[in-house]
Amino acid sequence: MNPLAQLDHAHVWHPFTQMRDWLRREPIVIASGKGAVLRDIHGKDYLDANSSIWTNLHGHQHPKINSAITRQLKKISHSSALGFANEPASLLAETLVSAANSKLKTQNPKLGKVFYSDDGSTALEVALKLAYEFTRRTRGKLVKPRFLSLDGAYHGDTIGAVSLGHIDLFHKAYGGMLFATNKVMSPYCYRCPFNRAKPERSDARKYRKCNWECVGLVEKKFAAQKKKNNSYAAFVFEPLMQGAAGMIPQPSGWLGQVTEIARSHGALLIADEVMTGFGRTGVTCHVDDKTIVDVSEKPMAAKLFATGRVGIVPDFLCVAKGLTGGYLPMAATLTTQRVFDAFLGEYEEFKTFFHGHSFTGNQLGAAAALASLEILQTKQSVLQRAKLQKQLHEELQTLWTLPNVGDIRQVGLVAGIELVKDWRTREPFALRERAGIRVCEAMAKRGVLTRPVGNVIVLMPPYCTTREQLQKMVSALREAVKKSF
Predict the structure, then answer these.
(1) pLDDT tens, position by position, 442-456
(2) pTM for this one?
């Protein structure tokens, strides 16, 4: 075994990993990367089929981001945001605000303030704390704010974020540490009890037969809470696609309906765009029931966020992962002037938002993020993403011939392929059967790296991925499924 692999086995505890299984074999030790390719210490190349756990947008060693970080290194790498400002963080805040406020007509509040943190979990933690205290200050200190999120929700691993989550496998063990939140049905068309359609060889959203019962349940949930004289403080959601829930896509129209219900009950909207942000859900904008692909030199900013694509401006927009192009850990929580104003006061009133992080507004991260955002809004990047999205759809269609593929779900450049025992019955594999893990292990032997979400294989290629590389990703998945079952 390679000495580095031995050191890993001796000392490193990996996240979301059963370490007994890990210690049974030599791990893949990544040594370098270029574009969509990763190389291990033995010189073997792999395609990065999930963008290094959903973070790397433009590929590894992108010259523009490399240069931005190098330039910043010659100035300063970090200084505290507690009492000091800095150039790249200020410029990034302006850029994020501009990107988050689309040109779409809306009466919803505009996002104008940016609070920096370190990762997706902390971005949600910031939104949660702000929403909690804002509600108490506007409704009365005796109010005990409650939050509503979706079944299968995963919003991070801090205690507040875990409290918003509803995946027993991840969250049940910490039940004694958490505060209570409520959940409502997720629009999981493939396994929806209200969907009367029989299985077809197509995305379940396209052939579903229902009466929007899932939306009705959201309305009932808000109405029931209102009767308790304690309406929900906020509705927390991942827009268009729930990630760790199993890449669950929302049918067209669902998000608009449920956010309108939340608004009508006075709830704040917390959009978790940690995974869906920065163009990941596609380059198209939906305006007045028309689909627009803007390929001008300054593409419509709404495309960068899933909420913007459907004309929703939340009260809190949480971003991380791809914020720096996958280079450095950095997150941001965007919110409104109205929320910001609730924390203004004289020093002795102690209305300050008492929350922070040592690396808040880090200059290197901000410099990388500015370069990434500049890349995203070039005509070349928009055209490449549009082309890759179309190619991904075409390649995924080849998987319908496999009897163990039950559903193929794609939103933009995110795809989830759900594995089942038989597509005709939708019978799932038990988690202990390790169906998704086995397929991903077989893909790795074919030079393609990704990680499953339970029985769902995730494909989330970097935006620089070529047609040939995409074909290899899907081909490796196809052959791995054939070999594994």
Answers:
(1) 999 999 999 999 999
(2) 0.95
